[in-house]
Amino acid sequence: MSEPAWLSQGRDHLWRPYCQMKTANPALPVVATRGSRLVLADGRELVDGLASWWTACHGYNHPHIAAAVREQLERMPHVMFGGLSHEPANRLATRLAALLPGDLNHVFLAESGSVSVEIAMKMALQFHINRGVKGRTRFLAFRGGYHGDTLATMTVCDPDEGMHSLFDGVMPRQQVGQMVHVVVAEGQGAGRRQLRSGPQTGVRQFIDQDQVVGPGQGRDDAGVGEIA
Ligand SMILES: Cc1ncc(COP(=O)(O)O)c(C=O)c1O
């Protein structure tokens, strides 16, 4: 396949995620998308089984989504949230609040999974700061967990897996516990997860993968909870 000029020209200026650029395989040039397919520069088509890291869960070029984005871009592409609001954000928050269980009825909008986890962690810390409680700063995370690649989210990922171990010593170590599932059929706490961990001195918040939904992530991402 002869390479498009933009691919070779841009290669010297782009750092791509999750790879060592010196040894990474060349990226495939995508020129169009259709449904579940990626169209390459030479006309070949690939089925995108990852749905673009799950951000294209409804398929590419979905007519309803394309029309809504086009209409919104023409009317008002962006407005900051500082002191201002707009109908789509208010409608989305209202709809999400109606879907969420129990007293989970507030929404904080973020633009990625990692940022949503950062925000959840910051909220948990700020909860205690606002109450004047000092020292409740550590999080309990679950072994095998993955929550993103920004610095704070890396501290609550599995400490031994993946590239995050490279950054050991840069950020505070959190408490890591083994998740066990306890099925409670009825009554208060039905279906809730429980946690088994080592010594929990100073640990007051934990990351729970079912509490926050980030863009493109289907159902899971991190939220926070309290150790009783
Ligand atoms: C469970 C989970 N949390 C967080 C993230 C990070 O999301 P993002 O890549 O949008 O920052 C991912 C990404 O794959 C994920 O699978």
Characterize the structure shown.
The chain is α/β, with parallel strands linked by helices and 228 residues long. The chain has two domains: 5-72, Alpha-Beta Complex (Aspartate Aminotransferase, domain 1); 113-227, Type I PLP-dependent aspartate aminotransferase-like (Major domain) (Aspartate Aminotransferase, domain 2). The chain contains six helices and eight strands, in the order αβββααααβαββββ. It has helices at 5-11, 51-54, 63-75, 87-99, 113-130, 151-155, and strands at 30-34, 37-40, 45-47, 138-142, 175-181, 193-196, 203-208, 223-226. The strands form two sheets. The chain has a five-stranded mixed β-sheet with strand order 6-5-4-7-8, with helices on one face. It has a three-stranded antiparallel β-sheet with strand order 1-2-3, with no helix packed on it. The N and C termini lie far apart (60 Å). Pyridoxal-5'-phosphate (PLP) binds next to helix 5.
Strand content: 15-25%
The total of helices stands at 6
Helical residues, percent: 25-40%
Count the domains. Answer: 2
- The count of β-strands is 8
CATH topology of the largest domain: Aspartate Aminotransferase, domain 2
CATH architecture of the largest domain: 3-Layer(aba) Sandwich
Task: Describe the strand arrangement of the main beta sheet, using strand numbers.
Answer: 6-5-4-7-8
Instruction: Give me the strand/helix succession.
Output: HEEEHHHHEHEEEE
Query: Class of the largest domain in CATH?
Result: Alpha Beta
Q: Radius of gyration over alpha carbons?
A: 21 Å
Q: Determine the mean pLDDT.
A: 82
